[in-house]
Sequence to fold (106 residues):
Amino acid sequence: MQPQQPSAPEMAGPFPPDLHDVRHLWLKAGLLLAWALVSFVAMYFARDLESLVVGSWPVGYWVAAQGGVLVFIAIVVIYCWAMNRFERQDAERAAAAKAETARHDG
Fold:
C-alpha cells in the first residue's frame, strides 16, 4: 500500500467579471460614501444639534446613539434589494440572449 500523496491545494480562480461590473461598483461606492458621511460627518456635528429637542432628548443624542446604526441597517437593506434586482436583470438578459440564439439556430 502506497501512502496517499497530499492533493495540491485548489487555487481559487479570479472573480467572474460580471460580479464587478459598473453597476455593482457604483452601488458599492455610493453606499460606502453614505456610510462614511454618516459615520464621520454626521457624528462630528451631532454636538451642534444639542439645542434641538425632540421629546425630552436632544436631537444630537439620537443622531450619535441611533443614527449610525439605523443608517447602517438601511445600507444593508438597500444593498440586498439592489443585488436582487441586478440578479433578476442579468437572468432576464441571459434568458433573452438564449431565446435569441435558439431562434436563430432553429
The longest helix spans residues 59-105.
